[in-house]
């Protein structure tokens, strides 16, 4: 947390190491008390103006047709499912991981065609899942596992470092704890995995590449 102590958080000036600074040190307004982005929020300018919505400059897949999305509305909440695969993406360095075993939150944000947030999910740092640490941190990848889906329905989140074309992200969720979106979705859909320090990875799904969008299933490949 040294980064936060050496900057002047709350002065309305976005300094190096601050993804936002809205001129106060208050939580709940998009830019939190430590000048970190709050979940699924985009901020611009200085003093920062923040609102729920997709971030504008996330890293993308070089072959979006290989980035798949499926959201299943089951007959019961326990049968709900979510799968997102981001493949052959722009380069991810291991330094982009942060410290999920201790400090770094990962927020999975699904926005509909009006930029409304329909499925917010957070993999919390630290913590124990099924009697073991939720996070496994390796030199080239990090993995969140929770068989009980206790964190917003997430059961697995993988971020794999790699050069351009080799980076990879995979997210799975299931069960009653998953956010419950309205089907069919208003297109296009934007999916982003975000860190609160500003890093993000995303894909957008439009009518041209969504193959199913019914009362119980959204399925398709990314357009960009």
Topology (elements, then pairings):
Blueprint: H1 2-6, E1 41-44, E2 49-52, E3 68-72, E4 81-89, E5 106-111, E6 117-123, E7 128-129, E8 132-133, E9 135-138, E10 141-145, E11 154-160, E12 167-174, E13 189-195, E14 200-205, E15 210-213, E16 217-221
Antiparallel strand pairs: 1-2, 3-4, 3-16, 4-12, 5-6, 5-13, 7-8, 9-10, 10-11, 11-12, 13-14, 15-16
Spell out the key features of this protein.
224 residues, 2 domains, 8-stranded antiparallel beta sheet, 38% strand, mainly beta, 16 strands
Structural account:
With 224 residues, the chain is mainly β. It folds into two domains: 8-52, no CATH class; 64-218. The chain is 2% helix and 38% strand. It contains one helix and 16 strands. It has one helix at residues 2-6; strands at residues 41-44, 49-52, 68-72, 81-89, 106-111, 117-123, 128-129, 132-133, 135-138, 141-145, 154-160, 167-174, 189-195, 200-205, 210-213, 217-221. The protein is globular and about 50 Å long.
């Amino acid at each position: 947390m040294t980064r936060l102590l050496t900057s002047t958080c709350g002065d309305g000036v976005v300094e190096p190491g601050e993804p936002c600074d809205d001129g106060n040190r208050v939580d709940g307004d998009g830019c939190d008390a430590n000048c970190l982005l709050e979940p699924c929020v985009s901020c611009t300018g200085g003093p920062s103006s923040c609102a729920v919505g997709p971030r504008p400059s996330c890293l993308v897949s070089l072959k979006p047709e290989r980035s798949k999305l499926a959201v299943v509305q089951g007959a019961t909440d326990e049968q709900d499912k979510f799968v997102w695969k981001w493949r052959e993406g722009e380069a991810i360095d291991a330094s982009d991981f942060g410290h999920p075993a201790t400090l770094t939150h990962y927020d999975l944000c699904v926005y509909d065609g009006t930029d409304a947030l329909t499925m917010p999910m957070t993999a919390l740092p630290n913590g124990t899942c099924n009697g073991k640490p939720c996070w496994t941190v390796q030199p080239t990848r990090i993995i969140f596992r929770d068989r009980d889906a206790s964190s917003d329905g997430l059961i697995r989140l993988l971020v794999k470092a790699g050069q351009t074309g080799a980076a990879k992200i995979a997210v799975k969720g299931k069960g009653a704890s998953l956010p419950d979106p309205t089907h069919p979705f208003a297109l296009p859909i934007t999916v982003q995995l975000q860190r609160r320090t500003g890093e993000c990875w995303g894909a957008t799904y439009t009518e041209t590449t969504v193959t199913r969008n019914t009362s119980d299933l959204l399925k398709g490949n990314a357009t960009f």
